[in-house]
Design goal:
This protein is mostly helical. 78% of the residues lie in helices and 0% in strands. Helix 7 packs parallel to helix 10. The relative contact order is 0.13.
Length: 232
């Protein structure tokens, strides 16, 4: 990706949008009722994907980089599509969405209270946890539709993490090297704490998906090392 601008990221998002349009939605008629533990877990992640992204877009526009703001709007559109896909997955098995969950309220409150750089650091915690979660749902889902939806969401998340890393690397660049290490070390510690909370909260589903709490937490924390290095 271009190291100074966001034109390549915009083209990447646009390519993904065209691919989604050409592919169309999964066949929702093939849906089956989800196991109760997985259903509750998917409901909670659906709430997390369902934010409108207005605060992030506003902060991106205020940063004064029109290309970056455009790329952020495309990112938010993909997150909204994830919420739509998960809602339809739930509906295909006759399960409702939920209005809110305490974990999402905490993340939203933190993100809205911060500037762009700190908001992205908080957002990256959710994104890195989501990478491992959707991989578990794709690989351990009990029906083909669940695995397909999880795979589609995961493919987007695998692009989102380097996109945000790109911005954070530029945002942290003016800091002295020791300060960058301190920031990313603090981010890894916060990620580890959040991951433990998710592992406990979604433990029954993770066991059903063949991962388990301990393995989930260890693999998320381990994956954060290269990501923190990329931010620096």
């Amino acid at each position: 990706m271009n190291s100074t601008g966001y034109g390549d990221w915009i083209r990447d998002f646009e390519t993904a949008r065209r691919q989604r349009a050409g592919q169309g939605d999964p066949d929702w008629r093939t849906g089956e009722p989800l196991h109760p533990a997985i259903r509750r877990s998917v409901q909670r992640f659906q709430v997390g994907e369902d934010g409108d992204g207005a605060e992030l877009i506003t902060k991106a526009e205020a940063a004064g980089d029109a290309e970056y703001a455009s790329a952020v709007r495309m990112f938010v559109a993909e997150e909204r599509n994830h919420a739509r896909l998960l809602a339809l997955l739930l509906a295909s098995g006759d399960a409702p969405t939920i209005a809110s969950h305490w974990s999402d309220r905490i993340f939203v409150t933190l993100r809205r209270a911060l500037g762009l750089r700190l908001e992205l650091l908080v957002l990256m915690i959710a994104e890195v946890v989501a990478l491992r979660y959707y991989r578990a749902l794709r690989d351990g889902g009990e029906d083909a539709l669940t695995r397909e939806v999880a795979g589609r969401v995961l493919a987007d998340e695998e692009r989102h993490v380097p996109f945000h890393c790109h911005r954070l690397r530029r945002a942290l660049r003016p800091l002295p090297a020791p300060a960058r290490v301190l920031v990313t070390s603090g981010w890894r510690a916060a990620l580890a704490a959040a991951c433990l909370v998710v592992a406990v909260d979604h433990g029954p589903a993770l066991r059903r998906l063949g991962v388990g709490r301990g393995r989930f937490a260890v693999e998320v924390v381990r994956s954060s090392g290269p990501i923190a290095a990329a931010m620096r």
